[in-house]
Design brief:
single chain; mainly alpha; two-stranded antiparallel ribbon; 13 helices; 2 strands; globular
């Protein structure tokens, strides 16, 4: 696949984000907006799109290529990482979990295929990984939840994500001051910084065409995995590409047709309507159980570095 240019002209080229003002944090715990949304199964639906945008970042893509077994087992990184990241919001010892995640990244650095130096804890790089998770939860709220967040809700939930990020104990310098500044900074990275890294090219190939050589499920054996792949590949492709910002699809020539959009819209509506019938307690229990189960199955690999 040919690499996309580092910066393709767009109809609306964003202005680089201005230096930020002081960022306001907010309390984060049970009952807060971020906690409630993160504890909802639907928060995971844009996760593949968030993961792809991480791989499109040159430093993160290089770290994944050099410091993990991504090309042999692309989904293992997700299975290892997502339970740990969500624990930094939901677990009683969330702050300690966040610092452990940070420490896993201390030795991840080197040079990418273009001889550019990188390190996982470089402030803008580490922030981008977190920014995709922040974006994921807002995107889930936008697409898959009934009703909509008010402007006040968005500001409050964004301030809670600042508290979440502070738990890692890293530089707060890249953190935008408010939700509008976050959107501007996120858009700027999508338009100007992302590029087709080898890891992202591999992920796009799997998303477009599937693969018989990778494991989708962490347990269950080849037969269950093949069955799960047949059921999941088409909806997963729709959700992954449908959730992506349009500018990312355009820059990297990700196919998206009017029929795809119609099917994605129908899928989003089905999720919004279907979850009305799921009691909140069962929804939260299901997410926690799934994350605990995946985490237990990957416990032996939990401390393998993952960018």
């Amino acid at each position: 696949m040919p690499a996309a240019p580092a910066s393709r002209p767009t109809a609306h080229t964003p202005t680089p984000p201005r230096p930020r003002a002081a960022t306001t944090a907010a309390p984060l715990g049970p009952g807060t907006l971020l906690w409630r949304h993160a504890a909802d199964l639907r928060s995971l639906l844009p996760g593949a799109a968030a993961g792809l945008m991480q791989l499109l970042h040159p430093a993160i893509g290089a770290g994944v290529t050099e410091h993990s077994a991504f090309f042999d087992a692309p989904f293992d990184r997700i299975h290892r990482s997502v339970p740990q990241i969500w624990a930094t919001i939901l677990a009683p010892d969330a702050a300690a979990r966040a610092r452990a995640v940070r420490d896993l990244h201390r030795g991840i650095g080197g040079a990418d295929e273009r001889a550019r130096r990188y390190h996982a804890l470089e402030p803008e790089t580490f922030w981008w990984a977190h920014a995709t998770f922040t974006w994921e939860i807002f995107k889930a709220a936008e697409l898959f939840h009934p009703g909509a967040l008010t402007a006040e809700d968005r500001e409050r939930m964004y301030a809670e994500t600042v508290t979440w990020y502070a738990r890692y104990g890293v530089s707060m310098r890249p953190v935008p001051a408010d939700y509008a500044a976050f959107q501007s900074a996120f858009w700027h990275v999508c338009a100007e910084r992302l590029e087709l890294t080898p890891a992202a090219a591999r992920a796009l190939e799997i998303a477009r065409h599937g693969s018989d050589t990778v494991t989708l499920l962490p347990v269950g054996g080849p037969r269950l995995d093949r069955a799960g792949r047949r059921v999941a590949e088409r909806p997963l492709r729709l959700i992954t590409f449908g959730c992506l910002p349009a500018i990312v699809r355009d820059r990297f020539d990700i196919p998206w047709t009017a029929l795809d959009q119609a099917q994605f819209t129908a899928l989003a509506i089905a999720n919004r309507q279907g979850y009305r019938m799921v009691p909140t307690g069962i929804n939260h229990w299901a997410l926690r159980t799934m994350l605990r189960y995946i985490g237990a199955q990957t416990r032996a690999d939990r401390y393998r570095p993952a960018a």
